[in-house]
Amino acid sequence: MTRWTDQWQHTATRELPAFPQLARWLQDEVNGRTADYEVAVVHGDYRLDNLILDPGTRQVRAVLDWEMSTLGDPLLDLALLLVYWEQPGDGLRRKVNVARNLTAGDGFWSREHVAGAYAEASPRPLDHLPVCLALACLKLAVVMESIHYRHLSGQAIDPLSAGLGDAAPALLELGLEVASGHGLAGLAA
User: What's the distance, CA 144 to chain centroid?
Assistant: First the structure.
């Protein structure tokens, strides 16, 4: 949490009350947990457009973009994938102009189906997935706000950075939806 709250302090372009609310909730949740969760290599930016899929089987053949990898709770990669996962009817997710429309088309699973398939394939319990989802929202909000900060200061010249002004507020609100007891369904807000 310290890494993300420190980064927020350095690059926030505006006051967003949702940030300290979500950060406090997460800190309370983390403080109340035991340290007996599994630790593994975590990709850190696990999403569909960082994967190479076999066109015939749709199996993952390669995972790209490992620059944010670290050791941590493996559910964090699932959580980030689910935060990036877009479904028809999503409201706030549409304001995050990254990896847009990749999973909103016909034939893609719902977030619930993705989480269910993970649960079937993995021995890991999903009991703390809401905490991981909220942390993924906060982390991604900090990353998006940092890019927005660089755009406003003239340091980011790519076209994507110009369209990220709404991303951090939307992600923080999604995190609060998850934290308020809606869990995975909160990502559809």
Answer: 11
State the distance between the two ends of the chain, measured CA to CA, in whole angstroms. 24
Q: How far apart are CA 84 and CA 130, in angstroms?
A: 15
7-43: per-residue pLDDT in tens? 999 999 999 999 999 999 999 998 887 777 789 999 9
In the chain, the number of structural domains is: 1
pTM over 0.85: yes
Range of the domain at 182: 2-188
Closest Cα to residue 48, out of 89, 91, 105? 105
Domain CATH number, residue 83 = 3.90.1200.10
Number of DSSP helices (H) and strands (E) in the chain, helices first: 7, 4
Sign of the CA dihedral 103, 179, 139, 10? Answer: positive
Q: What's the rounded Cα separation, in Å, for the pair 90 and 79?
A: 17
